[in-house]
């Protein structure tokens, strides 16, 4: 195997290239956009299992240097109820990092390892083992990896009837406020406001970062969302969250220039076919739990590493793909199911909203045992050195 073509240069693509390189397999990344993702995107939290997978490809230290650790989580309900969320012991903190900083760490390591990245190469189709791009260029491959996100072109090529992403009914926006919330920098607060869900944390340097899951009437593509003036988005945000504490203060102390739209929030339904012939999906193209899971990026990183292990150890490519899917599908779909339930609570109707202060403490006591819910997710570790069997 000499030519692995990776479609997509976001998160899963570079991790796949790095893991393949560690396995002694060369790869080229083809990115549709003309430039990299420096400065693009909001923040995300990498769970301990995601950080463990980054250790394997040698990027964990660079990510830690750019991230802010979060060791404590709190939930607030309708400005009245404040609940300490149960936490896991001995797994390490979440690492909150800007997507652009994660991208830069991955990209820098990929370049250091000699991975070729070709920009402005948007995939349009495949003929046999040749990738076709919209600029008329072509590229031969032994394996083609679709790391091209929820709107994956590779997924449609593998299966024209494959389901597309399902919109959650919310848009993501984020900003940095000069208002300092009365929390220590290691605390992340998940707030169910009067009209919508938001979260916030105090920055280690100064101010606070906030993010919202804004209920919206239609799924705006990111390009359209960014055409809306920031002043208009700020007006909508203040109308939705202005009565919340501290949501209103966070917004009133946010310069409009520091606010950005991060896009419509999607979740992938179960994808029937992850691979066909010599093509395979990885990351959000195959499985994208909603951001409610806290696992989206971490699962993408895990899958990239696991795919490389399978290609390293199983010579028959279709068999390697089938083994990779067996190793990953049950895990990622269980996470997605958990996140889907949380999403319903983010856009509650008026009756449920009134009952939430009564229901949520009961849920925390009876159902939210972290060792049973997120324990299997965050304690999961890939054994890179263990050989992969075809019946794994």
TrEMBL record:
<feature type="domain" description="FAD-binding">
    <location>
        <begin position="3"/>
        <end position="338"/>
    </location>
</feature>
<keyword id="KW-0503">Monooxygenase</keyword>
<dbReference type="InterPro" id="IPR002938">
    <property type="entry name" value="FAD-bd"/>
</dbReference>
<protein>
    <submittedName>
        <fullName>FAD-dependent oxidoreductase</fullName>
    </submittedName>
</protein>
<dbReference type="InterPro" id="IPR036188">
    <property type="entry name" value="FAD/NAD-bd_sf"/>
</dbReference>
<keyword id="KW-0560">Oxidoreductase</keyword>
<dbReference type="InterPro" id="IPR050493">
    <property type="entry name" value="FAD-dep_Monooxygenase_BioMet"/>
</dbReference>
<dbReference type="Pfam" id="PF01494">
    <property type="entry name" value="FAD_binding_3"/>
</dbReference>
């Amino acid at each position: 195997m000499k030519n692995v073509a990776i479609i997509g240069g976001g998160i899963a693509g570079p991790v796949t290239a790095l893991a393949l390189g560690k396995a002694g397999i060369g790869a080229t990344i083809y990115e549709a956009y003309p430039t990299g993702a420096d400065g693009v995107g909001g923040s995300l939290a990498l769970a301990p299992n995601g950080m463990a997978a980054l250790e394997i490809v040698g990027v964990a230290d660079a990510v830690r240097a750019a991230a802010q650790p979060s060791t404590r989580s709190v939930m607030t309900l309708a400005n009245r109820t404040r609940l300490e969320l149960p936490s896991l012991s001995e797994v390490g903190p979440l690492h909150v990092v800007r997507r652009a900083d994660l991208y830069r760490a991955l990209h820098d390591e990929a370049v250091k390892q000699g991975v070729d990245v070709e920009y402005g190469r948007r995939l349009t189709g495949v003929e046999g083992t040749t990738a076709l791009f919209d600029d008329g260029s072509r590229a031969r491959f032994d394996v083609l990896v679709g790391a091209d996100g929820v709107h994956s072109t590779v997924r449609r090529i593998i299966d024209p009837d494959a389901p597309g992403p399902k919109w959650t009914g919310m848009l993501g926006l984020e900003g940095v406020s000069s208002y300092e919330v009365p929390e220590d920098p290691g605390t992340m607060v998940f707030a169910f406001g009067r009209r919508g869900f938001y979260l916030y944390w105090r920055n280690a340097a100064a101010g606070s970062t906030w993010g919202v899951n804004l209920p919206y009437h239609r799924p705006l593509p990111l390009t359209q969302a960014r055409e809306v003036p920031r002043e208009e988005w700020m007006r909508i945000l203040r109308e939705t969250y202005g009565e919340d504490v501290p949501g209103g203060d966070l917004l009133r102390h946010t310069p409009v220039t520091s606010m950005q739209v991060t896009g419509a929030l999607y979740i992938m339904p179960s994808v029937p076919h992850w691979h066909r012939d010599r093509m395979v999906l990885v990351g959000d193209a195959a499985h994208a739990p909603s951001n409610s899971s806290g696992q989206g990026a971490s699962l993408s990183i895990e899958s990239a590493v696991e795919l490389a292990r399978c290609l390293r150890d199983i010579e028959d490519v279709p068999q390697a793909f089938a083994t990779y899917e067996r190793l990953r599908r049950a895990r990622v779909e269980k996470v997605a199911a958990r996140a889907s339930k949380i999403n319903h609570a983010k856009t509650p109707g008026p009756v449920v909203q009134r009952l939430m202060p009564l229901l949520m403490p009961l849920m925390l006591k009876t159902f939210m045992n972290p060792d049973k819910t997120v324990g299997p997710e965050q304690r999961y570790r890939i054994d890179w050195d263990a050989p992969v069997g075809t019946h794994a």
